[in-house]
Amino acid sequence: MSRRILSMIFILCLLPLRPSHAEIVDRIVAIVNDEIITQRELEEKAYPILLSMPGDPSEEEISQIKKNVSIELVKNKLVIQAAKQKKILLDREEVEAFVRARTQALEKQYGEDLDNVLAEQGYTVGDFEELMRREAKQEILKSRLIAQAVEGAVVVTDDDIRTEYSARMLVARSPDLAFQALLNLKSGKLTFANAVRQYSAGAGAEENGDMGSFLIGKWSEEIEAEIIKLKSVGDLSGVIQTAAGFVVVQLVDRRRVAIDTVSAENRKKIRERLVRLKSASESGAYVSSLWDRAYVKFID
């Protein structure tokens, strides 16, 4: 993929499309309490994901991605609503620091070409800064609400740090294939090794998906967030969306190594990652509780 295309993907991830750049018939796709989510919002969030996919995504892949995006939009709306209800305050300087950091990152990457790159999407630098200001306010509200919600709920022990995992991983190109594999695994129609050979596009397919033995910190946070939830040998994760593809993981073994075999530096890194993973899990539970108490309706 050319640098120019990558540049545009990066910009599109930050900026919504102007109406002149997308023929979208706007309509309501979801109602969240007394607010709505529109087709335009859905398309704007889904577009950069679809653009970054290798090859031409199938109709099933497009449908699944838009479904996932619509769920995330609802969750985002619920959190923002809750933050406003709790009257969480914003620090103006924190908002401006967020905007400066985003703008400086783009200026560093594109230099004098930044104005042209933005102009191709119908924006000025001023437009970009205002959009980032709105995004900053939402992100800060969300992070503060979640921090309040999970405070005191996240505990990381030495036993957590010294836990060594063994697992297998299947990496499918599409969510449809990953879900097919998961269903066949749960039903017992396929062993994990056979499922890897049939469905996996990952580099570990020739090793039957063997991930080896590892402490937390070796694999991506999306994958490890699911691994630490697996309690018994043979347990399967759900389908995990990652940069490499759609992943299913099976726990092979879990044991504790002597704490003194883990360096102090590595213990610190593992603790920090586990705090992030457990915080994310707790925040997910909190958002689920908001959804349970809310009025949410998807409109086909």
Could you describe the 3D structure shown?
The protein has helices at 3-14, 39-52, 59-85, 92-110, 114-119, 125-150, 158-161, 175-187, 192-199, 221-227, 264-293; strands spanning 28-32, 35-38, 163-172, 210-215, 240-242, 245-256, 296-298. Mean pLDDT is 85; it is low at 1-13 and 17-22. Strands 4-3-6-5 form a four-stranded antiparallel beta sheet. 55% of the residues lie in helices and 14% in strands. The chain folds into two domains: 3-150, Triger factor/SurA peptide-binding fold (Orthogonal Bundle), CATH 1.10.4030.10; 158-276, Chitinase A, domain 3 (Roll). With 300 residues, it is of the alpha+beta class. Helix 4 crosses helix 6. The chain has eleven helices and seven strands. Strand 5 (240-242) and strand 6 form a beta hairpin. The radius of gyration is 22 Å and the shape is globular. 21% of the residues are buried.
